[in-house]
Amino acid sequence: MTKPTSFESAIPSPTPARRGGDASDRAAIVRDESGLITTAPPAEHAILVGVELANRPQLLGLDDSLDELALLAKTAGVDVCGRITQRLEAPNPATLIGTGKLDELQLMVLESGANLVIFDDELSPRQQREIEKVLGQETKVLDRTALILDIFARHARTREGAVQVELAQYEYRLPRLTRAWTHLARQAGGRAGGAGGGVGVRGPGETQLEVDRREISRRIAFLKRQLDEIRKHRDQHRRQRRKSAIPVVALVGYTNAGKSTLLNALTDAHVRAEDRLFATLDPTTRRTELPSGHAALLTDTVGFIQKLPTELVAAFRATLEEVTEADVLIHVVDASHPNMEGHIAAVEEVLEELDAGEKPQLMVFNKIDRLESDPEALAQLHDQLRDYPYAVAISAARHTGLDKLRTTLDRLLRERMIPVDLTIPYHHGDLVALAHSHGFVESEEYTEQGTRLRGRLPVDLAGRYRAYWTNRQAPFPLENGPVPTHPSSPTHSHEETDHE
What domains can you pick out in the chain, each with its CATH number? Predict the structure, then answer.
């Protein structure tokens, strides 16, 4: 499978019969200062369009949302040369913005020489088609969703990431194919479809549009099968982790909040960490040691953003399941960002969509080193920490506050465990060792019946001790779990071990 390198790469190549194909499809020759021809594609120049609807509240204000769109455009290699905004009671069903504002946009395109217009809201296929009619064929019209898909395509480096991005691109593009083939005649036109065409060939024939729709639908079905295999593979890994009884902690947060930098600081993972949007697409899991001596698995995930395309949420379901399957979430927040509260709300919105909104969270306010010149903002941030049951302020880049983060995470994981009072027969010393290595043993005494332990155990592990509760009944229903038989390998059980 070929990895898509941009949004256009997920679109089937048009036939040579496309109008203007010989001229418009050839890139203009670009020379550098010395007169040599450069192979780098010329930069695209874009005008951004933002709309604020009275009946649709936004997490970010109109100007702030366009500032974020400008960052997305920059990440995609686009030069922003202007912006235009409009506040409406209701969107124009044909062009989203009003006709007068569309005329103003057309004039701005002509004056600035822009060859690209990017809308901050998703356009329907009809709206995109009507806007392109007004602006002309030389001006591309994209929306926020298409721009984000392009960025994801550029940053996908693994097979899993490429498959998920390509699926999202095709599902977004499928209802928008019409405008690409309006100039083509029917394939079976002329004599083949006319009166002299013979029996069985009369009729309109099949359009190129129908052919492309069928091919894309086949490709979508294939990619979904590929994702099913990826999901099964990840399920196997998660089952193995569950058997080890090591808690899984997922790093979530707004894009560019510093999740990858934090993962590197806590685990020496050496994953790519860049100051740009959506630098990380593929999840990375590393082990870290906590102050109690216990271990935890930290998983870095794709960053969230406001107006996250539904196609991406659906296509990246296999990756985002790392969030839904985690025991605890570390919500990383860029404390230096002026729209910090909006970013938190946007992440919470996506977590609710993933049915992960109720998971316990440790709020980590990152980049406090950028607030050193503003003592008032720093003091205000420390006041905000009191609004959360588990919250710390850190600088992942400078490794400031990491010890407190580890201690708070350790306390959160401990408080999630269930209290136990167990009497374990002496011939099951392996279970005693397992409780010490994965739980918190508060007291241990030796009785005639066996070793009595009081403390806390992870929920996933407590089921293995169902026969040894001191009062012969667990405080709440536990899933039946296998009892390990080998002290040196507590993850082995009477169940057959899954193999990849």
Answer: 7-170 (3.40.50.11060), 246-415 (3.40.50.300), 417-500 (no CATH)
